[in-house]
Write a structure and sequence with these properties.
The chain has 293 residues and is of the alpha+beta class. Helices cover 36% and strands 16% of the residues. The chain has a six-stranded antiparallel sheet, with no helix packed on it.
């Protein structure tokens, strides 16, 4: 049996990193700092982004976590570097939440879709909607925690952590197929069928679906929905006067009603409610924790 290897798959190792930057929420009372991931960074072709977020509030605040198709390493601590915790988190299929205490910080290293599961040597769908402690589950976990406890600058600690991650990332099977499919979904704004991906890549639709479950953690269909959600939310935040129906069409939805159904499924509110109230009216008691051990 032979498979067709597309030109894009063949050239994948020499291509630049995928241009996917999931939404980072910058709410009041939160300090957000994005860490540059430029050419030469240990995780340049591996991560979507790296960022730091800290609460400046006097009381606990809830941070909504929007589905983005990314596995992530998440570190939590405080200024005194006491009780530092580290987790590897799977992709999510709906909105989650993190309650951040006063002066508490979180560091997120979000892998590009289809990357990261090999840190644990298990399929990505085994970690979907779940989080597990880094220590004891990933080679280099203890080393990463020791780096976090150092007194060096945040950027330097992130650089050292990135090197440890790079060393422990295994060669992921089917990475060229997953890279091709995830990038095609990005390029088409989530408007490409798995049958089209199969025809372009030379693999069957069934094989692609299985590889998404194993490498991304969700189906190609759900990943496409998440890409459209991310794009539309970004446009809503960038242009508060643009008609929602126009945003829906530009973001790859059939119409405004189609976009609203996706919003209610993935983030528990309509696009109009999101534009008007952001996440201030969400009932967080009905939303699961992003990190629940």
């Amino acid at each position: 049996m032979s498979f067709v290897i597309s030109r894009k798959q063949y050239l994948a190792p020499n291509e630049p990193r995928a241009q996917y930057e999931p939404l980072i929420l910058e709410e009041e009372d939160f300090e957000v700092k994005k860490i540059d991931v430029t050419f030469g960074h240990p995780l340049y072709t591996t991560v979507a982004d790296i960022f730091y977020i800290r609460s400046n509030a006097d009381t606990p605040r809830v941070l909504p976590i929007i589905p983005d198709g990314c596995m992530a390493l998440v570190f939590c601590g405080n200024r005194e570097k006491e009780n530092i915790r580290a987790y590897i988190c799977g992709v999510t299929d709906e909105i989650k939440k993190i309650e951040i205490a006063p002066d508490e910080y979180y560091i997120f290293i979000r892998f590009l879709p289809g990357i990261g599961y090999s840190l644990l040597d298990q399929p990505a769908n085994k970690l979907t909607n779940k989080a597990i402690p880094l220590k004891g589950h990933m080679a280099g976990g203890e080393q990463i925690l020791s780096i976090l406890e150092r007194e060096t600058h945040l950027v330097e600690r992130i650089r050292l952590i990135s090197k440890v991650i790079r060393v422990n990332l295994h060669s992921e099977s089917n990475k060229y197929l997953i890279k091709y499919c995830t990038e095609r979904i990005l390029q088409t704004q989530g408007n490409i069928k798995v049958e089209e991906l199969a025809e372009e890549s030379g693999f069957t639709a069934r094989h692609i679906g299985k590889m998404f479950e194993r490498c991304v953690g969700i189906s190609p269909k759900l990943y496409s929905q998440i890409i459209r959600l991310q794009l539309s939310m970004t446009r809503i935040l960038e242009d508060r006067n643009m008609l929602l129906v126009d945003i829906a069409i530009d973001s790859g939805f059939f119409d405004h009603a189609h976009m609203n159904r996706m919003y209610k499924k993935l983030i528990h509110c309509s696009s109009g409610e999101f534009r008007k109230n952001f996440f201030n009216r969400l009932d967080y008691s009905t939303i699961d924790d992003y990190i629940s051990i």
